[in-house]
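Feature request, filed as a ticket because there's no other form

It would be nice if the structure record came with a short human-readable summary line next to the tokens. Right now we just get the raw output. Example of a typical job, pasted below so the devs can see what we mean:
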Amino acid sequence: MKLTFLGAARFVTGSQYLLEAGGLRILIDCGLAQGQDEKICGTDFPFDPLSIDYVILTHAHIDHSGRIPQLVKEGFKGSIITTSATSMLCSIMLLDSASIQESESEWMNRKRERKGEAPIEPLYTKDDAYKALELFSETEYGKLLTLNENVRVKFIDAGHLLGSSEVEFFVSEGGKEKKIVFSGDIGNLDQPIINNPEYIKNSDVVVMESTYGDRCHEKKATDDIYNRAKVLAKIVDDTFKRNGRVIIPSFAVGRTQELLYLFKIINDKKYIDRPIPVYLDSPLSIKATSVFKSCTAENYFDKDAMELINRGENPFEFPLLHKVKDVQESIKLNSIKESIVIISSSGMCEGGRIKHHLKHGLYKKENTILFVGYQANGTLGRSIVDGAKHVTIFGEQVEVHAQIQSLPGLSGHADHDGLIKWISSFKTKPEKIFISHGDRNVAPAFARELVEKYNLKAYAPHLGESFDLDDIIPYQEKEAYIDENDRILNESRELLAQGLEKVDEVINRLNDAARKADREDKKTCIRLANAINRLSSDLDDLAAKWNSD
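Raw output as currently delivered:
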């Protein structure tokens, strides 16, 4: 039995694990890396897609599913097994992702044409996404599936997103059976709408996420759904008192539906004694909300949501909710004078209509930009959250004068204590715990805590590392077993990640200095221009060198 970490290894995005066991080659998740993770991980598969027998998909988020169309494009012909809710969400999310890939390719090719360079293909197209969707096979929680005579698999509720799953593998090899558990993304406790994560009692091997392995969510004001709604209501009310608007970058699937649910509570409970016009400006969010509605008969929703549904109420509808479908209507939002709330995608501000709203709203001090989800390194959202004084949107520099806030407690991921609770639920200690889906500092630190504080055998793999699951090596000894070439490669990847952060920091500092420089101070302006030109020239030289190599 062999397990290889092909993504989300000391990174948060791009989940992808290859399990070779029982005569099968099984890919667990096939996600798209985002932000700086994409620059480091690349987009080439280190295996022949035709050699993969199954894809087991834990949930629909693009950082777990987003490369499935590419896999199919490059030859995969097996089955993609997941829950029915995940399958339905992927039917809209993968097509949307394909549309983005096509648009980005067209934009890049226009630039390449002007430079006399050859065009590039999109990572995949809508046709590839349609072909991928034909390979989906649906299952439900708790059902034991037989993949072949040696491998069985079962999905249980991860409590992270509609249809999200933890996956249990039961593998027979050489007369022995081994149980292998993949946590997927472990849900936060008491999330709106969906159930809490289920807990597993035993496993020989565990692959576990660690997104928030270094922190706990703020809980005082957000212990339950109604307190969360009150916090959101206060942010909206304070902004409206300044005659501003609230702009919310939100993930189209999961987080947007939670927000709609919170706004329904605010309206029903009358937490604000003024009208609250909410504009949902994301075609994907609108489609995803329809999927949520269609799953109300399934065992996906928590007790509070089901009480609303059983009373004949829609958890995602309330007065003054406007669904913006076409581009012209979206553009008109920028000319509305009264205070409004805009919910738009993408959640990390890397694409979609949210960038237009930020361009028109960031520079106004009366506005609030409200973040409601994780912002990966290297994304526009992360720059804003980290306090950038100005950002570049569509090639233009935009000053940041709006209030930047985050809504506490609204997270789809378990925090540190939630992760500890999940791993502590195992009645017998696993032989080995692999910590993934955490950044280069968080994942190894969380693994070390499990070793030192809880006496567990835990390790945070590097990208590309493989393990023989019949020969588990304890954490303390593992570092000595890494091949020297692999060690150099892993260290180089980590240095690259640090270097990219430094480049971003230098560029931001130079831009900030340029904005502050007195236009009459020609000497300072010349020095800044020379510094920027030197940096640009050095980066061009490096790019040319590595492209030629």
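Something like this underneath would help us a lot:
DSSP finds 17 helices and 22 strands in the chain.
The radius of gyration is 24 Å.
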